[in-house]
Amino acid sequence: MTLFREILDHNKNFVETKQYKEFLTTKFPDKRMVVVTCMDTRLVELLPKAMNLSNGDAKIIKNAGAIVSHPFGSLMRSIIVAVYELDADEVFVVGHYDCGMTGLNSESVITKAKNRGISDDVIETLGHAGIDLTRWLTGFKHAQEGIEKSVNIIRNHPLLPKNLPVHGLIIDPETGRLDVICDGYEVESSEK
């Protein structure tokens, strides 16, 4: 049985036995918060438990490294929609120790893409189109660096209110311990 078929079979049973009922909630986050975090598999259940989040409490946006790489990219758009359309009042950027984006080597990623069938012509065409894959596929030296950059982009976004608390945290992917990188309340009160 393929993974795809296994998922569909499980889903059919999930719906037929009404297991979905325990997850019913609204589209509005009960704790009025947005969490930007990493896609790391260790955080799927650990992060919500470590932050005392239940289904429906927060908008959770995941990507590699919890990185907001562009102020007008899709991740930033999601934050803006959560704030203005879904009533989120705070943003938490939560990176983690031992992140795969730490020291990410763009040449390694490009080589692996080529090994899986992406041609040199495609790589060259992207370069001619102004896409710097070396820069785009680069991570950070330390998780704290990535968090600080993401917090800075969100905090200074021209379409977000200046009094929006934007917090930066690092979670230990083994214990769930949260270390504060920046407290959005402190920044907000120092700007008044």
Automatic annotation (TrEMBL):
Q: Which SUPFAM superfamilies match?
A: beta-carbonic anhydrase, cab
Cofactor: record remark = Binds 1 zinc ion per subunit.
The molecular function terms of the Gene Ontology recorded here are: carbonate dehydratase activity; zinc ion binding
One Pfam family here = Pro_CA
Q: What's its catalytic activity?
A: hydrogencarbonate + H(+) = CO2 + H2O
Going by the UniProt record, its keywords in alphabetical order are: Metal-binding, Zinc
The signal sequence is none
Q: Which PANTHER family match?
A: CARBON DISULFIDE HYDROLASE, CARBONIC ANHYDRASE
* Protein known as: carbonic anhydrase
Q: Which organism is it from?
A: Paenibacillus sedimenti
